[in-house]
Design brief:
Layout lengths: L1 H28 L5 E4 L7 E4 L9 H10 L5 H11 L6 H6 L27 H15 L6 H11 L6 H12 L4
Antiparallel strand pairs: 1-2
């Protein structure tokens, strides 16, 4: 009889553990998928983000998020967002949460949703995370802001006037940084 009680207790312990684990898995499935990103700078930074609901975009939140993610040359990246999103009014930004006019990534990690030519994101923050992934893949060796702007003019821009327009917008937004 004693052996039967011990076996029953052991079984109950295992069942309780399994039910607890299933509860945790079910709870996590209701949350937005966690985003884990790595952005190299002077030190390694790992960031895990859980959000149940997307937060409303503001220019101030964007500036802070660029800083939080250790984005290289945040004033340039902010100027890109202003340009590419039509001062945050374009359909690509309002509907697809694409701040930077990012195309669908082909040769790097991405957090973008499936889309045609241009990337689509669940939230504006994911657009910034995707830009961070772009930087970690393609601009690791760039050492100065002017070198970065030249890189963008050669590899990111879709027109010849991009660099001049970007420099103009940087002049308008630099005081925010």
């Amino acid at each position: 009889m004693l052996k039967a009680i011990f076996d029953t207790r052991t079984i109950l312990l295992y069942l309780t553990t399994i039910v607890g684990l299933l509860f945790i898995v079910a709870l996590l499935s209701f949350m937005e998928n966690p985003k884990v990103i790595y952005v190299p700078q002077k030190e390694k930074v790992y960031m895990v983000e859980y959000r149940d609901k997307p937060d409303k975009f503001t220019k101030e939140k964007l500036i802070q998020y660029l800083k939080d993610l250790n984005i290289k040359y945040p004033e340039v990246v902010y100027a890109q967002a202003v340009m590419e999103s039509g001062n945050f009014k374009s359909k690509m930004f309002r509907v697809d949460n694409n701040l930077f006019g990012m195309r669908k990534a082909k040769s790097r990690c991405t957090v973008a949703l499936e889309g045609d030519t241009y990337a689509k994101f669940k939230t504006w923050r994911e657009s910034v995370i995707d830009y961070a992934l772009y930087q970690t893949t393609f601009v690791k060796k760039i050492k100065s802001q002017s070198e970065y702007i030249n890189h963008l003019a050669r590899n990111y821009a879709t027109g010849n006037a991009y660099k001049g327009h970007l420099l103009e917008v940087i002049g308008q937004v630099e005081e925010k940084f």
